[in-house]
Design a protein that fits this description.
Mean pLDDT: 93
Helix content: 10-25%
Largest sheet: 10 strands, antiparallel
Number of strands: 22
Low-confidence stretches: none
Radius of gyration: 25 Å
Strand content: 25-35%
Number of helices: 10
Distance between the termini: 28 Å
Length: about 425
């Protein structure tokens, strides 16, 4: 441990007074309590605060952490744990704060302490109109971390886009979206429409789930090994680690726009859009309407042309060119993330930055029983071994519907029912996680 020490000075956990040295490494804080060595993992810590605990402990230091819970009912959910320490004097406390907060940020302990600044955009109309209330869970984390934030509540898609389009990037370290996948789609559209789009799209995105599906947020949390919850989402934003995130360009009718989540056609898009008449059922509307459409079992003629990704099981080095399938499809589902919603692990082999779109296909000839099994199993990503389930990992694809009627959906929103192309843009954006 001595080789990893970055700072040491007298420190005690209240109500003891500082007699023995505390030791800070890049991974942990160590101290003694009643002669017994104690350890706090910095992986759980979000920040520090200077406080006066009592007359004898004027130079108090509060360290806020969110350790994972181990109880079965709360497995892997994070909860606040506050640690109260006493320093020798004001100068010592300032040194401890600087050392801990800079270590959390991955900076040298002598660096000037800077507070990260985030812009929070809340869509109160997302999901069940509880996004504002949900953000209160994130606020408690942000208020204990070494950051500042401003909050904008929007009332429409246009207001969301306008607010993000007009952000001053020089004053921001990141953008936090409290809403559903539709709000994320609007945010990306706004960033990509700015004159400084190349810089704007690199502004790290943090997602706190305030919608119904929340597929991107679930994918980020799962990749980070975190349980799905607004508080856990706020925690990984507060920690500040980032990763690249693929987007996709969508081309249709000489127009170009951007997708971060999915393109669906057939049974999937029919359920998504047509079930809105059952919106009063909440998330159950999808399951019920899927059962209704399985009994009807529509199929759609179409041409699916794809450029295989090297990780595709159909990829051959000597045939790494466009491949075409013309058939009667029950559905085609192209995914950029592993999770389509927080309870649907549709493409478990997908990654946030693998440079690929993962496409699921089922064609005519699939039985109703097999479709029902797919619906049941996709919650845990256990559906890929079904006999008629086809899985393609592609760099780009083209879809030409050969039927007069149908629904195409991009990121949960209906688009023109006409030929469409999708091409991955590897690592174009960044997300916290």
């Amino acid at each position: 441990m001595e080789q990893n020490v970055v700072f040491t000075s007298k420190l005690a956990q209240y109500p003891e007074l500082p007699k023995n040295p505390g030791i800070l490494t890049k991974e942990s804080l160590f101290w003694q309590e009643q002669g017994i060595k104690q350890r706090l993992s910095l992986a759980d810590v979000v920040g520090t605060s200077a406080i006066a605990i009592s007359e004898k402990a004027k130079f108090g230091l509060l360290i806020s952490a969110y350790p994972r819970q181990t109880a079965i009912a709360k497995r892997n959910q994070r909860e606040l744990a506050e640690y109260y320490f006493v320093c020798e004097d004001e100068a010592s406390r300032a040194q401890w704060q600087q050392a801990i907060d800079n270590t959390l940020a991955g900076k040298p302990i002598e660096a000037e302490l800077e507070r990260r600044r985030l812009q929070v955009v809340i869509n109160p109309n997302s999901g069940r109109q509880k996004a504002g209330k949900i953000f209160q869970q994130g606020r408690q984390v942000f208020d204990r971390a070494n950051l500042e934030y401003d909050v904008i509540e929007t009332t429409s898609t246009q207001e969301t886009k306008s607010s993000i389009f007009n952000l001053n990037l020089d004053q921001l370290e990141g953008l936090v979206i409290v809403g559903g996948d539709g709000t994320v789609h609007d945010a990306i559209a706004a960033l990509m429409s700015r004159p400084d789009r190349d810089r704007a799209i690199k502004l790290p995105l943090g997602i706190i789930p305030g919608g119904t599906g929340n597929g991107l947020c679930k994918s980020i949390l799962a990749a980070a090994g975190e349980a799905y919850s607004p508080l856990n989402a706020a925690f990984i934003i507060a920690k500040g680690k980032q990763q690249d995130f693929d987007l996709a360009t969508v081309r249709q009718n000489e127009k170009e726009y951007y997708s971060f989540l999915s393109l669906a056609w057939g049974l999937i898009s029919d359920v998504d859009i047509e079930s809105e008449k059952l919106k009063f059922l909440g998330a159950y509307r999808f399951d019920l309407y899927a059962l209704i459409l399985m009994s009807l079992l529509r199929d759609y003629r179409g041409r699916f042309t794809y450029l295989p990704h090297p990780d595709c099981q159909h990829f051959q080095a000597d045939k790494a060119d466009w491949q075409t399938i013309e058939a009667d499809f029950i559905f085609l589902w192209g995914m950029n993330t592993p999770w389509a919603a927080h309870d649907m692990n549709v493409t478990p082999k997908a990654r946030l930055n693998d440079g690929a779109i993962d496409v699921l296909v089922m064609r005519r000839g699939t039985s109703r029983l097999e479709l029902l099994q797919a619906l049941i199993k996709c919650g845990k990503g256990q559906h890929l071994d079904l006999p008629h389930m086809e899985y393609y990992k592609v760099r780009a694809f083209k879809l030409k519907p050969l039927t007069d009627r149908g629904i195409l959906v991009v990121d949960g929103e209906p688009v023109d029912y006409s030929p469409v192309e999708m091409e991955v843009m590897p690592g174009l954006a960044r997300v916290y996680g």
